């Protein structure tokens, strides 16, 4: 024992020294507590109960309090506390509901002193009185708090919170008789130990269980609480009603909270799950922690400042079976990694931009806001020189107002109200929506609807108006499936360009082939024949290339006096004899639309014989290849939907999803569909487009969205005869056995839309009630109630 005494008093009267360090424990820790002189720390858990000496370079194990051959549940600790007046006194809260005190001054190996077995369930917290040596307080899962006098064998007082389990109890540092308790129902209670019959004050502090609390060491009335709602709140208890002073938003449930010594606005927190780090917050800056310790690899279960007057050392225990000492100067500062600029749009389109004052110093020459929308409004935060982060908080806020009408969303509302999403064939839906988009000046969206019409519908049904719009205004021909051009109108004449010029040594081919990018010619073996390098637009009527590139001729082994070459009648083997027929737009249109023309014949490019007077080259080219199934374009349609969604036009993405239905649903994952639908529905509801929103929910392809209009839809209806609430699902009252859906005007059962007055419960057909109330304000049932319909 003499050795233990020297360890506990070695650092008495001297300044603390040390570094950031850790040691491995035999088992996960549930709680830690520091002795009065900050030289030792006790670690307790389900399978560990040891005391470690805190030396300058390491932790040294000094005493193991788990003695005996048989394991006891009394040693399975949920919490531990070291008395701040008696260095030999400890108390633990066992998971079996037992409160145990330990006397380190006992000469035997077993230091256990007293057992209190009055709690029926797990004890969550134990706390010694800060100035009274023999007073111990406990809070249990059974909802009771008990005050023990260590000179007696039983508790002296029992406090009932009339609520669920007690999660934390803490004696006030400044008020001798006051202690605070937190509960799982979100309440915080203040008690006077002299009055166990009722609490002095109770208030709801959090939305969910309150896991911890801590009194401020300097400010008498400040109480910090942490809960499952991921918040730490600071309350002023000196007022008549508890007043919330500060609120810190964390990222996980708060398991422990401890005020930092000598720093009025700083407190440390750790989380119950998910987050393994320890944060030190300045409550005046509630969104960015002032410091962060990242040493632990599992949930931190206990934190304690090493000395009540030293803010530099923080001790912690974790489920990763480690005990750490953190030096505050070694902590990382998240504010240094935070983005110093902020950008946000307002509800009405205004743009706010915040940045460091040094970055906007060059803009200080701008005129103040006097109504000119081109100039921003400037705000500058007034700095408090006493703030430790005043330099980092120096910022300027600029607010830019949008031009009047520039942020108008009228097109969104008009599109939502005019779009057709169901009830018609797919071709009509695409044509209608394309027309709506074109009338609203959204040409790209209209083009998209037209392309979807072409991809998923029969090409023969495409209207010439939509097709010409999709092809472009450069085409002067009204043919929906083919274009033609006259060789005579191309310039000096194709015949002169085809003559051999032996002096220039041009080499030309005796076969004219079409461009492969424009069409693929199918021969008898059903093979694809490559063409020349003529641009595709040339065959569609937009002449951009040179004319001699169209029909090159081969001059090799040609007699110099040979006459001029002309285009052959056919450049490839024919399946059958071509019958000479008049070549003209009318004939080609009739033949293309004829049901007796095969697909290969319609896709064949033919060259007419050269005439000395004029030559007409007609190219029949289907814009849509009937041999390509719609699934061939699935990847393209999917990318198009993602493009519109990324551009912010979720309306287009959702509308296409509904219109195409199963054709495209399999290509978009369920989570993405649900995200698009919920975003679009939220926008519709913001613009009060309730009917459109309900239609989108009803027609949605996402299972999670289609059930939205079937959840939380409850109507409480009273019987119009006996005025009692109707508990059954039908329209027959359980009490008077009469039908509640009788029309008060025509006295017939309403089978369609039913409207009723919430004051007297009478109603009927919508048209009948509207017509009745046009001439009278009294209820048509004769009850005398003044009904209103708006």
From TrEMBL:
It is an enzyme of class 2 (transferase). WD repeats lie at residues 116-158, 203-245. Its main location: membrane. One of its GO terms (molecular function) is zinc ion binding. Residues 498-509 have a biased composition (Basic and acidic residues). The keyword Repeat applies. Residues 490-536, 580-609 are annotated as: Disordered. Signal peptide: none annotated. Residues 514-523 have a biased composition (Polar residues). The keyword Zinc-finger applies. Keywords: Autophagy, Lysosome, Membrane, Metal-binding, Repeat, Transferase, Ubl conjugation pathway, WD repeat, Zinc, Zinc-finger. InterPro entries: WD40/YVTN_repeat-like_dom_sf, WD40_repeat_CS, WD40_repeat_dom_sf, WD40_rpt, WDR24. Catalytic component of the GATOR2 complex, a multiprotein complex that acts as an activator of the amino acid-sensing branch of the mTORC1 signaling pathway. The GATOR2 complex indirectly activates mTORC1 through the inhibition of the GATOR1 subcomplex. GATOR2 probably acts as an E3 ubiquitin-protein ligase toward GATOR1. In the presence of abundant amino acids, the GATOR2 complex mediates ubiquitination of the NPRL2 core component of the GATOR1 complex, leading to GATOR1 inactivation. In the absence of amino acids, GATOR2 is inhibited, activating the GATOR1 complex. This is GATOR2 complex protein WDR24. It comes from Cricetulus griseus (Chinese hamster).
